[in-house]
């Protein structure tokens, strides 16, 4: 079966070359087909290891041209790499006092403008100068700030989210941040969770007015920035749509660690203690979904693991599922790979990279990438190149240079069963499960209230009551 697939891929590549030579296939379409070739994906191998950080590397991303890779780490430094040579072009202190969780180069800025967020809750702007870099504080979250999302094509506008549930809109032209809303649970059934700890935010590249956020519950929420009035006269906290697999509705044991939009407005969602799902716009639950128990929802869902791209005339479309990896221990991202988002890629607790075909969900590659956990995988914007990072202090660059094509491990899904926990490993991880975090905060709040009551006769009790 493997040989048959390889021959088909090679034969198709030969036909593409012939069509390009005789003028039946444009150079651009040829490049796209080549970059999406399964034969190349099967030949991905480590090209270089970028070694300069002194801690876990929590973020990697390419600039728009693809010639520079930016990374951020537990060592609180940001490094700009010439990834082809493996040389660090610039390394500087981010200004953060804790682990850098995300660092991105702003588009159309001559690669001199970067934005970062970190475990200290700060959102910072770095300006690259001839003598180095200058950084300044733009905004602050009360809790760790995991992700930021840049408005496509804008050198000024981006959004941030954090564990305080807050979503902020930031404009570099004024260096001003606008607090849009705090993300709250869908109903009152989870009193222990006054707000959703947000782990991920992403913007739809086809319609930059739309952005999605997700975190410590089962829902991905879609918002439309056009509904926000800058004078604060409207309540912007209401999503325009919700997304969740039917069998996970009402499941308080899961959360979401990663989101990504494709150029076709498909939404990729990675759950901890569960799988990865691909939603199209017609799979939304609407602005006012009705919560239900996971048991009743399961009765409506088809068996997970079959082809979920099919639709029924009388039922809502079911999202495609991607299985095999393990996402229990860390806050992992998820991404598309290929010029037309032909593949889905994710890291795993087993220290491997998993690659699936987007259509059909077939697992085609499993690659050893970290001794512990792989958290970040970033696709090159133009060619078949991946950058990955995790608990180890290096960054691995993957290119299709392998001579032999490897085979998949046997029974890969049985090798890495879920264990329904989210323990700490590395700087960007939760020390305990999200629900336990909220329970501890609630207990701490109750303790402080009790202290205040006991000291109500003391004039100085105000200092002991501050949160």
From TrEMBL:
Assigned GO CC terms: Cul4-RING E3 ubiquitin ligase complex; cytoplasm
One Pfam match: WD40
Keyword annotations: Repeat, WD repeat
Keyword match Transmembrane: no
WD repeat positions: 50-91, 367-398
Name of the protein described by the UniProt record: Anaphase-promoting complex subunit 4 WD40 domain-containing protein
């Amino acid at each position: 079966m493997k040989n048959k697939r390889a021959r088909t891929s090679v034969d198709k590549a030969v036909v593409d070359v012939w069509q390009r030579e005789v003028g039946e296939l444009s150079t651009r379409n040829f490049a796209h087909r080549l970059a999406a070739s399964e034969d190349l994906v099967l030949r991905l191998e480590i090209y270089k290891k970028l070694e300069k950080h002194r801690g876990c590397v929590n973020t990697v991303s390419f600039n728009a041209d693809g010639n520079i890779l930016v990374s951020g780490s537990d060592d609180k430094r940001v490094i700009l790499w010439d990834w082809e040579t493996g040389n660090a072009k610039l390394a500087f202190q981010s200004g953060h006092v804790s682990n850098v969780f995300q660092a991105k180069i702003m588009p159309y800025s001559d690669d001199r403008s970067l934005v970062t967020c970190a475990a200290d809750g700060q959102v910072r702007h770095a300006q690259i100068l001839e003598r180095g870099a200058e950084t300044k504080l733009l905004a602050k979250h009360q809790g760790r700030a995991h992700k930021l999302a840049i408005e496509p094509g804008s050198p000024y506008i981006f959004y941030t989210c954090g564990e305080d549930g807050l979503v902020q809109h930031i404009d570099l032209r004024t260096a001003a941040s606008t607090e849009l809303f705090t993300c709250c649970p869908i109903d009152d059934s989870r009193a222990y969770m006054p707000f959703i700890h947000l782990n991920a935010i992403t913007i739809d590249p086809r319609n930059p007015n739309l952005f999605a956020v997700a975190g410590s519950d089962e829902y991905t929420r879609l918002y439309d920035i056009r509904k926000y009035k800058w004078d604060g006269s409207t309540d912007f906290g209401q999503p325009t749509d919700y997304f969740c697999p039917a069998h996970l509705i009402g499941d308080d044991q899961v959360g979401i660690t990663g989101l990504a939009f494709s150029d076709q407005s498909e939404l990729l969602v990675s759950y901890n203690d569960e799988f990865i799902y691909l939603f199209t716009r017609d799979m939304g639950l609407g602005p006012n979904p009705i919560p239900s128990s996971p048991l009743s929802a399961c009765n409506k869902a088809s068996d997970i693991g079959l082809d979920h791209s099919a639709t029924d005339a009388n039922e809502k479309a079911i999202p495609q599922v991607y299985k095999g990896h393990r996402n229990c221990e860390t806050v992992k991202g998820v991404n598309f790979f290929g010029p037309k988002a032909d593949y889905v890629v994710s890291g795993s607790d087993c220290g491997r990279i998993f690659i699936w075909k987007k259509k059909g969900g077939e697992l085609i590659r499993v690659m050893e990438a970290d001794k512990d956990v792989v958290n970040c995988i970033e696709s090159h914007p133009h060619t078949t190149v991946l950058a990955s990072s995790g608990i180890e202090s290096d960054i691995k660059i993957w290119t299709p240079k392998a001579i032999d094509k490897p085979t998949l491990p046997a029974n890969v899904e049985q090798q890495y069963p879920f264990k329904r926990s989210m323990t700490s490993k590395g700087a960007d991880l939760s020390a305990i499960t999200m629900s336990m975090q909220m329970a501890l905060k609630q207990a701490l709040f109750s303790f402080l209230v009790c202290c205040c009551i006991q000291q109500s006769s003391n004039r100085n009790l105000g200092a002991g009551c501050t949160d």
